[in-house]
Design goal:
disordered N terminus, RNA-binding, elongated, alpha/beta, Ribosomal Protein L25, Chain P
RNA sequence: UACCCGGUGGUGUAAUCGGUAACACACCAGGUUUUGGUCCUGGCAUUCCUGGUUCGAGUCCAGGCCGGGUAGCCA
């Protein structure tokens, strides 16, 4: 249909911008903003918005501001501001000198509020929060006018000034826009613009005891900054008429608000409230727990900013509420790490193996390729000796069909080393568990194939017992057992779907000696296992790795299918 | 029950403002392979429904069905 070299498809927002550029609607400018409230850590859903806003500016030669929407001092903290700045920067975006705070505009907002009062478009209301709610009406019934709606301009001016001066207790009065209490859009039923609130603001301190509401503040912030396209999520769609009303009544510069669907991921929750609950409730080890969908958690887990950006690009932008398969995210990291992560050998569940015919004290330094995808990454030496550790899962005393790794009498290749044949095993007398294997090796294939053309069906990773470095490895799985964590029995909440297996700590892993002292943040592929990243908990004498994601595992699938078949065969 | 917004394969998007459904992920089946990785090949769709306009509709119109959002002095 479409020519293979057709121009990349534009999402609906890009189309709007392209059209605006064509008609010169904004004098050729494109100016977006990412406006987080500093009341929590950024997550992958925010990454979508960040990539969208900064990406749009980049694609169309425009600008994107980083702006903190800090109008509610009760929930906001400096810690969050710091983390947000770090995360956006880590994702690879640059706002240059355009770091703004909504609170910096409080004075201007106040003046504009006075302007609206003077125009008879805003009034001070003495209704209690409870009364305000009652007067608002319901979804299906109109509201009714506040008895304070007809106050004179002078009285409103005086009252509003005294609200600011702190003459009234918290919650006692509000400044409201005078619009239409019968509007079918509840946001237009005389929305509150200011509330009296004595709370110390993280930036303005005690200067203010009235704070602007989102709708009022956000439109003004966008206007002040000369934003052209104010992009937000779908739940603000009903707020757009209000956004427009404020700006029109004020007669000030008026950006266009555009709404898109926020990101949802399978096996993941994205609400800041719930993520905070997981942190506070000790269900995870903090905002940067590698199981969290937070940017900081993903960073610690080993995700690359590039892979997150690629993911955000691929999921697209639309107005339909959808849930993306987390496999798509995992694919993006694998793809990126496959190209850049150096390969090493690491044994997660060590099984001691003695090569009986290998010289007792001999050690050979074998050549290993650092990344078959990138020859430029070179090679390294890996020590081989008589006693090795192999992965427990790579040996089966009684191998099932299609299992072609090590088993009694079987021959396999050791990566970059020799062919070995299993000749015997030692079992724990109590448990019957295999605790050691005995093998013989054939020196001929050293590093490659056997000269006699003999084939083996498996190549296993290994480490030399005498040279290996001990490591702790943390294996992560989905935080929730259900694709939709919100799918719960009556009376339960999402926490009942928390997975008991989301974290497995392995403390006796063995990795090749070259990994000693690896710096936190360094990423590797443990061959045949997955991608791993050195955790900040790691130190010179204690290596700690996080598993970012497993490798695709064909055998695991086969085995799973076999078990499913057996099960259905039984019944 | 009111208003607003949506509805394309298992999932997420695309289809150059009517021209005969594409890409990615997932899944399945093969091939290559010193990672059962990567890579390569193939398989998997009557666009929510019903009418209408048209030579032609995923795109336009009408009605219906389904889903999401909204009753904070949160954002």
């Amino acid at each position: 249909m479409t020519a293979p070299d057709a121009r990349p498809a534009l999402n609906f927002i890009q189309e709007i911008i392209a059209e605006d550029l064509k008609t010169n609607k904004w004098d050729g400018r494109v100016h977006t903003r990412f406006p987080p409230e500093p009341n929590g850590y950024l997550h992958i859903g925010h990454a979508k918005s960040i990539c969208l806003n900064f990406g749009l500016a980049d694609e169309f030669g425009g600008l994107c501001n980083l702006r903190f929407d800090d109008t509610n001092p009760i929930k906001e903290e400096q810690e969050y501001i710091d983390s947000i700045i770090e995360d956006v920067r880590w994702l690879g975006f640059d706002w240059k000198d355009r770091l703004y705070y909504g609170s910096d505009y409080f004075e201007q907002m106040y003046e504009w509020a006075v302007q609206l009062i003077n125009a008879g478009k805003a009034y001070v209301c003495d209704l209690t929060p409870e009364q305000t709610r009652q007067y608002r009406g319901t979804l299906t019934t109109p509201g009714k006018d506040s008895p304070y709606r007809t106050r004179s301009v002078d009285e409103n001016l005086d009252l509003f000034e005294r609200m600011r001066a702190g003459d009234f207790p918290d919650g006692s009065r509000t400044l409201r826009a005078k619009i239409d209490m019968a509007s079918p859009n509840l946001n237009m039923r005389d929305p509150v613009m200011y509330r009296v609130l004595r709370a110390r603001h993280h930036r303005t301190g005690d200067k203010w005891c009235i704070y602007p509401m989102y709708d009022w503040a956000h439109a003004l912030e966008d206007s002040i900054e000369g934003i052209t396209h104010s992009i937000c999520t779908l739940e603000f769609e009903n707020h757009r008429p209000l956004y427009d009303w404020f700006l029109d009544e004020l007669g000030v510069y008026h950006p266009q608000q555009i709404e898109f669907a926020r990101l949802e991921l399978t096996y993941t929750i994205m609400s800041k409230r719930r993520l905070l609950e997981l942190v506070d409730g000790g269900h995870v080890c903090g905002w940067d727990d590698p199981r969290m969908p937070t940017i900081s958690g993903m960073r610690r887990r080993g995700y690359t900013p590039e892979s997150i950006r690629t993911f955000c690009k691929r999921i697209g932008v639309a107005k339909f509420n959808s849930t993306v398969d987390i496999a798509k995210l995992e694919h993006a990291v694998r793809e990126d790490l496959n190209k850049r992560a150096p390969r090493v050998m690491g044994v997660l569940h060590p099984l001691r193996v003695v090569i009986d015919n290998y010289p007792e004290h001999q050690v050979e330094e074998l050549d290993a390729v650092n990344n078959p995808e990138d020859p430029g990454m070179g090679t390294r030496k890996v020590p081989f000796s008589r006693v090795l550790y192999l992965e427990r899962d790579d040996f089966r005393e009684d191998p099932p069909k299609k299992f072609f790794r090590l088993a009694p009498g079987r021959e396999v290749r050791l990566r970059y080393a020799y062919y070995i044949t299993c000749t015997g095993m030692v079992k724990d007398e109590q448990t019957g568990e295999v605790v050691e294997l005995h093998c013989t090796y054939d020196p001929a294939p050293r590093g490659g194939d056997s000269p006699d053309g003999r084939k083996v069906k498996a190549t296993l990773h290994w480490v030399s017992a005498a040279h290996a470095v001990g490591a702790e490895v943390r294996l992560y799985d989905h935080l929730f057992t259900k694709a939709d964590p919100g799918d719960v029995e009556a009376g339960q909440d999402y926490k009942s779907n928390l997975s008991p297996n989301s974290l497995e700590v392995l403390t006796h892993c063995k990795v090749e000696p070259g990994l000693a002292g690896a710096a936190p943040g360094t990423r590797y592929q443990f061959e045949r296992n997955g991608y791993f990243c050195v955790d900040p908990d790691s130190s010179a004498d204690r290596l700690v790795f996080n598993r970012t994601v497993t490798l695709r595992d064909a055998w695991a699938r086969i085995e799973k299918a076999q078990m499913a078949q057996e099960k259905s065969g039984e019944s």
